[in-house]
Amino acid sequence: MTEKKRKPKAAGPRTEVFAMRLDPKLKYLAEIAARKQRRSLANFVEWAIEQALNRVQLVESGFNGEGPTVVDASAQLWALDEPDRLIKLATHYPDLLSYEEQLIWRVVCDYSVYNKDQKRWSRFKEANGFNFVQQCWAEIKAYAMNPEKPETKQQLDAALLSHDDFPF
Fold this sequence. Notes:
By secondary structure, the protein is mainly α. It has a domain at 73-161. It has helices at 24-36, 41-53, 74-77, 82-92, 99-110, 132-135, 137-145, 150-161, and strands at 113-115, 120-122. A two-stranded antiparallel ribbon has the order 1-2. β1 and β2 form a beta hairpin. α1 (24-36) crosses α2 (41-53). It starts with 23 loop residues before the first helix and ends in a 7-residue tail after the last helix. Mean pLDDT is 82; it is low at 126-130.
């Protein structure tokens, strides 16, 4: 009897590859711990990371110094798309943005518009639901990483102007 091969799901891989370097002693000890738990080393490392996410506090608060952990905030932070993840992180924990994310966020804020009806700055979605960050992500990133190149600003401006929904 032959075993059927699994077909990959249309949505893509369920996991991502992450190469890492370990100190030889740490790797050996992790392999021993993995054997003890009857896991592969990769599965053990994934499990260990999950355990750590339950302990890492994003903000220290309260009288006992305990704040929300990464796991506690996972619903606030996770999104399928990279632009949405950046928006969530910048909105909830701006101090945790990487340098590259700060550059991108600055462009997003620079291209924000003031909504006179709502008397507030609209950064992501206008009243009609247009999400310019999602629609212009490639151009936003290109301009954020290379602001000295005039063509990156021109491409971003052209991308924004191509959407009638953006009141630029």
